[in-house]
Amino acid sequence: MNERLLHRLDSPQAASLLASLYGPEELESARYRYKSLIKGICDLVSQEDPEQAAEKTAKLRFFTAPGRTELGGNHTDHNHGKILAASIQLDVVALVLPRADKQVLFRSTGYPDVRIDLSDLSPRVSEQGTTEALLRGVAGELAAQGLALGGFTAHADSTVFAGSGLSSSAAIEVLFGAIFDHLYGEGTRSALELAKIGQKAENTYFGKPSGLMDQTACAYGGGVLIDFENEQYPTVRPIHLDMESFGLCLCVVHTRGNHADLTAEYAAIPQEMKAVARFFGKSVLRELDGETLLAHTEAIRKTVGDRPFLRALHFFHENQRVDAMQEALERAEACSGTARSSALMRYLRLVNESGDSSWKLLQNLYVPHNPQDQGLPLALALTRAFFETPGKTKSPLWACRVHGGGFAGTIQAYIPLEYLDSYKTLMESVFGPGALTPLRIRSRGAVELVF
To answer: Most buried one in 131, 167, 286, 405, CB count within 10 A?
Structure first.
């Protein structure tokens, strides 16, 4: 056991850092989590090389990458649209030791060990959909950029629960990128570079045709407005977010639906949007405008179909909504009194409009061939009923929308703090214990932590 490192976790510096990542109320649980990881990797190294275990564990390094929450811009990034997103306190933490060989051993709590040999970084069909694919893919992209890679041993733990729409895979991707970059490349790659490496690994090695939004939000940290008009060099603008200062809890409700086997459903959304763009001789919808779309409604219906038209209409409305949401948030942060309340109400109305558009136009709340499984619409309907029962409105300060890719997984909700306990009771009575997770915006993205 590395007693010196354990002692450092009890220092005021470590307390300040951990509180900034997870909140002051989670300080002791964060310390316990990190100390458990120290014990785990020390045991792992002792098993592999008992004679040099003490010397090796003296070189332990901490890395973390957060999950993310999408606030606006549902399914717009892949057509060069705009996104409002933020990194959250749920993260992947890894204790890492460099190795002298080309082997990587990645152990994560609750999952099978991942082992790869860096001497072969070619994509493997047999690995698609696995952590091995992401690890090999990130290494492959960095090697292609000229980075001389070595191996590492890592013990990790993730609180970004899979299938939640909180981007567990993107968090892992940018974590791997940060580890390789810091161990073997001076740690100079930007957040955007790490994001693009992760996306390429997910597209080429993992086999999922994702956009760049998830990785960008996880890599940067804090609230961000991302404009993908230039997909290779998106504009990223920091946005200050503090929902507690507004008396709100930003949370997600996990409806226990599974994202597995939904790749075709996700892929159909950008494919159909781009089919509408091709109708006009364009490659993506960002090259068009909503008025042009509406002016050709009949021809698009006949040539491309109704659902692609509706999904394209969602894109244009949602893209404009992101700017309006950002403006409302910044006004709410800057103002006080009535002006502050008015701006906050506008922001929440826009969140609800985003949810309605995803439900009605984008149509990504459930899978048509499985109509009996509609956890997302049910959670949204229950949220609205909770606040707006006939003849009674509990509070005007609430909002809800689908979260992430959709079809299964989670909804996002803004709940007044005074109603959080009763709302949680309702959601967990339907979807099970632990279904509701409060989110906290954290300022750090994919980074190495120094205590």
So the answer is: 167
Q: Do 313 and 228 fall within a single domain?
A: no
Whether residue 181 contacts residue 425, with contact meaning beta carbons closer than 8 Å, is answered with no
Confidence (pLDDT) at 163? 67
Write out residues in the chain with pLDDT < 70, as ranges.
1-2, 49-57, 163-164, 258-260
Same domain as 183, residue 133 = yes
> Which of 203, 198, 202, 159 is closest to 179 using CA atoms?
198
C-alpha distances out from residue 449 to 94, 178, 195, 412, Å = 10, 11, 19, 29
Sign of CA dihedral 275, 280, 283, 289: negative
CB atoms within 10 A of CB 53: 18
DSSP-based three-state secondary structure for 450: coil
Instruction: Say yes or no: 259 and 220 in one domain.
Output: no
Distance CA 404, CA 367 (A): 15
The answer to whether residues 34 and 23 belong to one domain is yes
142 contacts 194 by C-beta, under 8 angstroms: no
Residue 273 sits in which domain range? Answer: 243-438
Question: Tokens 């909002």 identify what position?
Answer: 399
Residue 78 CA to residue 270 CA, distance in Å, equals 6
Per-residue pLDDT reduced to its tens digit, 31-79: 999 999 999 888 888 877 666 666 666 788 999 999 999 999 999 999 9
Query: 168 and 289: one domain?
Result: no
Helix or strand (DSSP H, E) at 386:
helix 375-387
The helix or strand, by DSSP H or E, that contains position 156, with its residue range, turns out to be strand 152-158
- Sequence-ordered list of residues with C-beta below 8 angstroms from that of 338, at least 6 positions apart, any chain: none
**Per-residue 3-state assignment (H helix, E strand, C coil) for 182-202:** HHHCCCCCCHHHHHHHHHHHH
Residues 61 and 190 reside in one and the same domain: yes
Residue identified by tokens 């220092």 is: 11
Distance of CA 167 to the CA centre of its chain: 3
210 and 331 share one domain: no
How many domains, the chain?
2
The domain that holds 96 is classified in CATH as 3.30.230.10
For β-strands 82-98 and 223-227, DSSP reports them as antiparallel
> Using an 8 Å Cβ cutoff, are 438 and 413 in contact?
no
Q: Which two tokens stand for residue 93?
A: 């933490």
Going across the sheet that includes 399-402, the strands are 399-402, 410-416, 248-254, 436-438
CA 306 and chain centroid, separation: 30
CATH of residue 393's domain is 3.30.70.890
Structure tokens at 159: 């609180």
Query: In degrees, to the nearest 5, what angle opens at C-alpha 318 toward C-alphas 331 and 375?
Result: 105
